[in-house]
Amino acid sequence: MSAPLVEVSAISRTYSMRSGMFGRAAAVHAVDGVSLTIARGQTLGLVGESGSGKSTTGRIVLGLEPPDSGEVRFDGKPMAAPGTAAWRAQRARMQMIFQDPLGALDRRLPVATQIREPLDIHGVGTPSMREDRVRELLRAVELTPAHGARYPGALSGGQRQRIVLARALATKPDFLVCDEPVSALDVSIQAQVVNLLADLQAQLGLTLLFISHDLRVVRQISNVVAVMYLGRIVEIGSADDLFARPEHPYTQALVSASPAPGRRSASRIVLSGDPPNPAARPQGCAFHPRCPRAIARCASEVPALEAVASDRQVACHLVSGAATRDAA
Amino acid sequence: MAPLVSIAGLSVAFSGVPVLRGVDLALGKGEAVGLVGESGSGKSVTWLAALGLLPRHAQVTGSVRLDGRELLGAPAGELDRVRGGRIAMIFQDPASALNPVLTIRKQLCEALALHRDLSGNAVKAEARRLLDLVGIPDAARRLEAYPHEFSGGQIQRIMIAMALAGNPDLLIADEPTTALDATIQAQILELLSTVRRELGMAMVLISHDLGVVAENCDRVAVMYAGRIVEEAPSNQLFADPVHPYAQGLIGALPPLDGPRRRLTAIPGTVPDPAHMPDGCAFAPRCALAAEPCGLAVPSLAPIANDRTVACIRAEASRRALLGIAAE
Prior knowledge:
The structure holds two protein chains of two kinds.
Chain A: E1 6-18, E2 25-38, E3 43-47, H1 54-62, E4 69-74, E5 77-78, H2 85-92, E6 94-97, H3 101-104, H4 111-121, H5 127-140, H6 145-148, H7 157-169, E7 175-179, H8 187-204, E8 207-212, H9 215-221, E9 224-229, E10 232-238, H10 239-242, H11 249-257, E11 306-309, E12 312-314, H12 321-327
Parallel strand pairs in A: 3-8, 3-9, 6-7, 7-8
Antiparallel strand pairs in A: 1-2, 1-4, 4-5, 9-10, 10-12, 11-12
Helix pairs in contact in A: 4-5, 4-7, 5-7, 7-8
Chain B: E1 5-14, E2 17-27, E3 32-36, H1 43-50, E4 58-66, E5 69-70, H2 76-82, E6 87-90, H3 104-115, H4 121-133, H5 139-142, H6 152-164, E7 170-174, H7 182-199, E8 202-207, H8 210-216, E9 219-224, E10 227-233, H9 234-239, H10 244-251, E11 301-304, E12 307-309, H11 314-326
Parallel strand pairs in B: 3-8, 3-9, 6-7, 7-8
Antiparallel strand pairs in B: 1-2, 1-4, 4-5, 9-10, 10-12, 11-12
Helix pairs in contact in B: 3-4, 3-6, 4-6, 6-7
């Protein structure tokens, strides 16, 4: 097996947040010791609720934000310092897609001009070659040159997201970070964009980091899925298997909270308590105040992410091998 | 049994552009009905029109009857008693529905004073009981708090408490959990079903999420471009959808377990209300469309004793589905 394209080791990011004008600053551990590897041509899905740190992880992986500690290596090399020529060259190989395509596009420019912009910035080819490339990109996302002449306001939500995708692909990147790319779209349009993304990935050999709160969409597109809770990965495993046999109590609750047509709510695990607040993370396992199975040890000791099977790692005292040994 | 609410031929146009094109729907006492469809399909407009909540320039025609009494064009005084009193509504964005500079107690008591014959301490006691009912811990103290002191899930609980203030017979929940995280969504849906069971209240759950509707409703109506295209008991609709659009919606939903397959996306986009195609509005996106589909708008016709479908290709569509299932 070849070396992974993206290697993230133990990255952490803390923000300070002030409550009110004179309040004392509190440290918010948005991301805390997250390690990931993404193999070439594969998709890693990152799921979690708001405040779980999944978007911050995506921004750090892309180099939009430096980690406080830890390191991100892209294609075997550490990320170059922001603003340098090496950094620009590296950034052309990695792109990002956001949730709100209207916010990511300039309303006053025809969309074809916006697709061309990265080519102009990175000085790719001659002007006529760039025009050809724009037409090729529009075709790749199943739109016509006529769509290219329009302004973002004259396109539907699905078409706008295709334009954003075309622009991200303009510099022929190897790696795409997609942050909730289909969450704002209607179900039927969502399926179109998910299929398109899967096709483009297969054609171009793209590597993806796919961030979403939607378990179904994440499973559909990912090879490996990581579940985050309050800045840490609590479970990671193969996409086929993870939601079918979740091990961590939080993953189990998430899967059970995901409504399924044809299943009545009788068997649902309903977690008590409020959504987690990253500014006041509980001691020990961050999930223990809401966990239906928590024991005394969960309140004092942070569980480490440990392998429980060849393709599964779980951070839970009740699941990991260590706990079973202790209990025996 | 006479229906609680019956809607017939309800149509709405905004400055000449039709957005709702003849909706027929009946709702029994205590029944939970789901309305699904994509943005712009008319799910919310149906109920805003029924309750007279649309701006004045909207042209509303048809009939909406509550216990046999016509609501469209009813005098303002009567509508005021219906809204909040008999039919209450909660919305997707609960934070913007509360006044940020008033305490929860003020806002709850306002709703109670409007709809219930209570005064003085009885109002306050009732407000506390409602907060208890919707699962806000330490209700007596939390009554004095302002909206920003609550989380999104708690705010939606408070909205539900306010909706319950008038003891309504029907609660319209318009995307009540869309803005909430998955685990909080599960809490709110659980709360809604408990409250509904305890109070014997009917509910209309409006959602774009098929799963949410399937799990929480007895019956589901699927809307497309301002019309109901299929109506069926939830379990039947998801096991055996007949209308090609309903089939498409279910096929577009990625499965959570079992083998992964390519999603069957519906091609194209929802038609522009100002330029509706002739005949069936779904025909341009439909794989089964035939020539007659472009001629007349199909009417909602029964295919079983509790199912209706608006599709002239319903038979072909059903065969196609069974054919795929048999392979």
